[in-house]
Write a structure and sequence with these properties.
Largest sheet: 8 strands, mixed
CATH topology: STM4215-like
Order of helices and strands: HEEEEEEHEEEE
Number of strands: 10
Number of helices: 2
CATH architecture: 2-Layer Sandwich
Structural class: alpha+beta
Distance between the termini: 9 Å
Number of domains: 1
Shape: elongated
Strand content: over 45%
CATH class: Alpha Beta
Radius of gyration: 17 Å
Helix content: 10-25%
């Protein structure tokens, strides 16, 4: 169940294109993070425990969680506020409130939350959380 949704989320992120100064930002998934240089996005997928909605064989399950995207930009960027806001807008557009069906999954992108910017090792970063809900039926 979790593996199927993880595949759906990775496909979505792999097909997305987030632009910074005319270049596509690389997206690193959990486990791929090393000492990155330059602008990039780091992502994690969090899921809560499934909630069974009926008892029995092939019971549908409702799972909520979020995809966390950490946008890391060089602290030397002269238009840093604009750049962070622009990227947050791109992510919001990519994950606008919608739903779709993929195999045994009905997925809903709920909203995008933005956290405050912080400085981390020569980068300014903003964390965005794409909240989701999916329903899984066997």
């Amino acid at each position: 169940m979790y593996l199927g949704f993880n595949t759906i989320a990775r496909k979505k992120l792999n097909s997305a294109s987030f632009q910074y100064n005319g270049n596509e930002l690389p997206i690193y998934f959990s486990g791929d993070w090393e000492e990155d240089k330059g602008a990039h996005i780091r992502t994690l997928i969090y899921s809560n425990e499934p909630e069974a909605t009926e008892v029995g064989f092939s019971a549908p399950e409702n799972v909520t969680g979020y995809i966390q995207l950490g946008v890391f930009l060089p602290a030397t960027d002269k238009g840093l506020d604009y750049s962070l806001n622009e990227l947050a807008s791109q992510i919001h557009t990519e994950f606008n409130r919608s739903n779709f069906v993929d195999g045994n999954y009905k997925v809903e992108w709920l909203n995008v939350q933005r956290e405050n910017e912080i400085r981390v090792a020569g980068h300014y970063t903003v964390t965005l959380r794409v909240n989701y809900r999916y329903f899984h039926c066997n």
